[in-house]
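Quick note —
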Amino acid sequence: MAKKAAKASKKRRTSKKTSKKRTAKRTTSKRKAAKPATKRSAKHPMDIAIAVLKRNPKASYADVQAAGAKQGVKVAAPIVMRHARNKLGISQPAARKAARKTAKKTASSGSGERAATVAFAAKHMKKKPDITMSDLQKLAGKKHNIYPLILGLARKELGWGRPKKKTAAKRAPGRPPKTAGRRGPGRPRKTTGRRGPGRPRKTSDPADAISAVVNRMRDLERETDSLRKALDKIAGIASAV
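Predicted structure written out below.
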């Protein structure tokens, strides 16, 4: 029995070793079959730009595009030229630097012109606070370009706040706008000289007023009598039934 058990354990060990060897062979074969890491092709826009700049450091973006078109590569981004120059240690062309300097100068001169326009507007607004923009434009002519922002800057320079707009008092959402003489919900219309129920009309003579009150009292007595008679009739009919 012991011999049989030893043989069975040996078989297991050998089978495990063989399975490990097989898996190792499979992994190695897969690694060999895998494609190697692809390098950037020679027809990349950056490589074309570097090649063109090596030949001619003063080459333009149009030259690089033409070289790319010959090789069937589209060089669409001008930043490729900048990166290629940085890699080769080539500085920017003098024409581009000059263009940037002129752009800065024009920007600074524009801000100076605006400051002069603001000063012009502030000067005239100080003399005449209610001056309009059209009047300022007429005074400025072609020397200064007056527009709403200039008026705002001139007000700020003079220390004036924004002109306050006349707006109606804010009401709660859903409430109608307030109008003169508006009544509340359910309230009767207010009329001048309105009398209460049963009250006689106002008269200037007190005797007339007293006689009117007496007449009204008599009318009320007649009404009560007629109502009593009607009630007696109704009671008689009810007792007969």
